[in-house]
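User: Let's play a game. I give you a shape written as tokens, and you guess the letters that built it. Ready? Here's round one.
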């Protein structure tokens, strides 16, 4: 069956342009939370409505194949109605996380996404520019905003494993932004995906000096941080106390992220912390109440734990509370 093109505007979603310019001038960052299912979406919206925060709902390639892209889009549309029902309409962006081809970005743009990331960071600089430019030209015809990436994060990105950081080179950013026309730029300054960002004994600090240099080259331009989970140790402890095996899980300190959010960093990506919160809550129920077999009895506590985590991030790390 031929798919019908849908604009995000028909779904009540918005792109990220105005949100980012307000976030940069206001010294805060918008939460970009990944979701794959109903409970994650509910927790995100409940947390953002309660704190009156704008939000970016992120869908990865993996999420699309796990949950079905059409269903996720319906969930995002449902999120708009859900927020209104909870009392406050909030700005909601539906964003493709780590798009790796023009075709995937195009498909998402035509099916209701309001923002896409084209991650050309694994290509040569020239090819990254070319690919990003192509996506921007198409996206802007639909008033969809585009995030590009320069530099490579260590860790796992989809199926690609990078063993070392390739920090973003400040002397490339101005050229990249002007040649591609991107609306925001993801940079590599020592963050990484997943729950194991540093080895024990390693200096767990990110390179805020590189961020500062980048800001000087492109003043006021919206910067994005990927791999920004903090890996709360109390969640790791709960998981391990209830049968989990997470050894040496270390994240990015919240104090460093707070500093970044006060600068031109206007979007902070958080996925792993949500995974930890859900896993801790579910393991606890399974361990303490082995007689339970109703999914609502463990997915409910998982949703509550997620909501609590997201509220904490909004108020204490991102500073986006009250900015809806
Ligand atoms: O960047 C990675 C995000 O955490 C999404 O992860 O590709 O396993 O859905 P995923
Ligand atoms: P974390 O793995 O640190 O949560 O990063 C998520 C991310 O960058 C999604 O694009
Ligand atoms: Zn990422």
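Assistant: Ready! My guess for every position:
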């Amino acid at each position: 069956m031929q798919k019908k093109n849908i604009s995000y505007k028909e779904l009540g979603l918005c792109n990220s342009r105005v949100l980012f310019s307000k976030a940069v001038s206001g010294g805060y960052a918008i939460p970009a939370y990944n979701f794959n299912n109903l409970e994650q979406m509910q927790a995100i919206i409940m947390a953002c409505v309660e704190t009156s925060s704008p939000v970016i709902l992120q869908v990865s390639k993996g999420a699309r194949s796990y949950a079905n892209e059409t269903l996720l889009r319906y969930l995002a549309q449902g999120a708009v109605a859900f927020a209104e029902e909870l009392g406050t309409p909030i700005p909601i962006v539906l964003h493709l996380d780590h798009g790796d081809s023009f075709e995937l970005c195009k498909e998402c743009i035509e099916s209701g996404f309001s923002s896409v990331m084209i991650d050309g960071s694994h290509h040569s600089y020239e090819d990254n520019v070319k690919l990003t430019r192509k996506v921007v030209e198409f996206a802007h015809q639909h008033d969809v905003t585009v995030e590009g990436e320069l530099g490579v994060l260590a860790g796992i990105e989809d199926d690609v494993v990078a063993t070392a950081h390739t920090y973003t080179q400040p002397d490339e950013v101005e050229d990249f932004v002007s040649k591609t026309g991107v609306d925001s730029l993801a940079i590599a300054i020592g963050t990484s995906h997943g729950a194991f960002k540093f080895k024990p004994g390693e200096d767990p600090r990110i390179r805020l000096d590189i961020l500062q240099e980048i800001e000087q080259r492109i003043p006021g331009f919206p910067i994005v941080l990927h791999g920004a989970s903090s890996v709360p140790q109390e969640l790791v402890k709960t998981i391990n106390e209830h049968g989990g095996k997470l050894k040496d899980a270390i994240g990015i300190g919240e104090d460093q992220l707070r500093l970044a959010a006060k600068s031109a960093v206007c979007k902070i990506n958080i996925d792993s912390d949500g995974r930890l919160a859900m896993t801790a809550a579910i393991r606890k129920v399974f361990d303490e109440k082995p007689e339970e077999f109703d999914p609502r009895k463990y997915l409910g506590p998982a949703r509550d734990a997620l909501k609590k985590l997201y509220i904490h991030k909004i108020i204490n790390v991102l500073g986006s509370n009250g900015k809806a």
